[in-house]
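Attaching the record inline, Q. Sequence:
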Amino acid sequence: MRRLYVVTHPEAEHHLSGQVGGWWDSALTERGLRQADAVAARVRELVPADAAVGLHSSDLTRTVQTAEAIGARLGVRPSLLPGLREKSYGVAEGRPQAWLDARFVPPPPTGNRLDHAEGIEGAETRREFAVRAYAAVDRILAGPGAHHVVVTHGFALTFVVCAWIGMPLESVGHVNVRSTSGGITLLEEDDFFANRSVVRLDDVAHLG
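Structure, as predicted:
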C-alpha cells in the first residue's frame, strides 16, 4: 500500500493582511504555527510508527515552517521542491487583493482555459502551474518508500490530486479541488490492483 498525506499550509500572514500570496514569501501567523503543530500531531497518528517516510515541501516559508513541524514529529528533514509552490501571480504578489481583483481577466467558460492570460504581468497560466506540479508529483512517486508527506498550498492541491489520479493535463482546465488552510488529504494506492484513491479530502478535524 502506498500513501500520500497531502497537507495545505495553515494560516499565513497574507491571509490576515488581505495581500496576494502566490510566490510572495509570507510566514505562518502565531495561530498558523499552532495549527502546524496540530497538523504534525495528526500526521504522526496517520503514518505507521515503523514506516520509513518521505517528507516533501514547497520551498516557500509558510510551507517550510509547516513541514519542519511535521518533520520534528516524524524524525525526518523535508526535501524542498519548488514545483509544489502556489500559483505565481507575477507583479500582483504582495499587493492588496483588491489590486489584483481590479485587473484580473477571468478565463472563458469554454475554449482554451489552460493557456488563458489573466492580464497580470508575470503570472503563470494554469498550464504552466499544472505542468510543474505534475512534475513534482512524478518526482515524489519515483522515489523509494510507501509513505510520503507532501506540504503544499491551497490551489496547488488541485494539481497534486489530478496528478495522483492520472488525469490528463489537457483535462484540468475546469478542475478545482476545494481546500482549507491546514487540511490533510489522504491518497492511497492499493497493492493488488494498483488503483489510486482519494480516501479523504481536506480533513480538518484535527484543527478543532
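The chain has one domain: 2-207. The domain at 2-207 is CATH 3.40.50.1240 (Rossmann fold).

More tomorrow.
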